[in-house]
Amino acid sequence: MRRWFVRLLILAVIVIALGLWITRPRSDGAEALAGLTGDVTRGEAVFTAAGCASCHMAEGASDEARLVLTGGQRFASPFGTFTAPNISQDPDQGIGTWSAPDLWNALHHGTSPQGRHYYPAFPYASYIRMEPQQVADLHAYLATLPADPTPSQPHDVPFPFNIRTALGGWKLLFLRDGWVMQGDLNEAEQRGRVLVEALGHCAECHSPRNALGGLKTGADWLSGAPNPAGRGSFPDLTPPEMSWSEAELVEYFTSGFTPEFDMAGGHMSHVVQNLAQLPESDRAAIAAYLKRLPLGQ
Question: Which keywords does UniProt give here (predicted)?
């Protein structure tokens, strides 16, 4: 009996060690961005489309203060409340010492420069679809923004969700870099896919999640979801529920006004503010993508 117990204990240790190795934080080396030079102008467009300031600016910031990425906004969820960190150029409290590969690993693998898992409240499950050149461009633009020494505030996440090691298992289940919308897409629809599925991370709010917080795809993709903060819900973007024309969608992304003369509110007002800074062709591309929904049609 003792011999069998020892064997089982050894087997358990091996299984645990193997699991920890499989789910370890992943990082790529400098080769991921080898030969790429970041462009500040393109990087600003990536920054705007990705909505970086909307989450990482100080609460209530406006105008130029939006570009001081001091963090501090809090986002409630069923797993706890997450606080956006300082991602300004401060070398101690922000990301001023990050290299372009550091940024790539954060966006693509959800891994910090210190080799720790990030919580998926940081939407790397969408940003994983960003191209290396887009990341290099974003890094170049971030380097032009101001530094702020405000310390990042800790997340308020209870046990067992505060065990970051478990996030490796979450990534193994749900972190995928393939496109959700497949098929023969025209140029505008392909651009819309980049903006919706990757940069704009629209599904992070507008798609339902399973019990572990993974985004549902297939027929559920962008079909609406409860607000994780517990107040209301995010609307279904798929026809026939979303009946607006492409022109009406473009107008909404530009001005925030709906065809019913309502106005975008809450966090969507920040999204519209970002989209309005993009070329009209990008807003039209998002509309074209949405009109191809639901998937499979």
Answer: Heme, Iron, Metal-binding
Mean pLDDT value across the chain? 91
* Per-residue tokens: 282: 């990008």
Hey, what are 77's tokens?
Answer: 């969820």
Q: Regarding the domain delimited by 187-291, which CATH topology (the fold level of the hierarchy) does it fall under?
A: Cytochrome Bc1 Complex; Chain D, domain 2 (1.10.760)
Q: Name the pTM for this structure.
A: 0.91
**Ranges of each domain in the chain:** 33-174, 187-291
pLDDT beyond 50 at 126: yes
How many Cβ atoms from other residues are within 10 Å of residue 284's Cβ? 18
Q: Residue 105 and residue 124: Cα distance in Å, rounded?
A: 10
Who's near 108: CB < 8 A, 6+ residues apart?
28, 32, 124, 127, 128, 130, 135, 177
Q: Cα 252–258–263 angle (5° rounding)?
A: 95
At 207 the pLDDT is: 96
What's the rounded Cα separation, in Å, for the pair 113 and 177?
Answer: 21
Query: How far does CA 164 lie from the centroid of its chain?
Result: 18
Tell me the torsion sign for CA atoms 277, 128, 244, 77: negative
Q: Residue range 172-177: average pLDDT?
A: 92
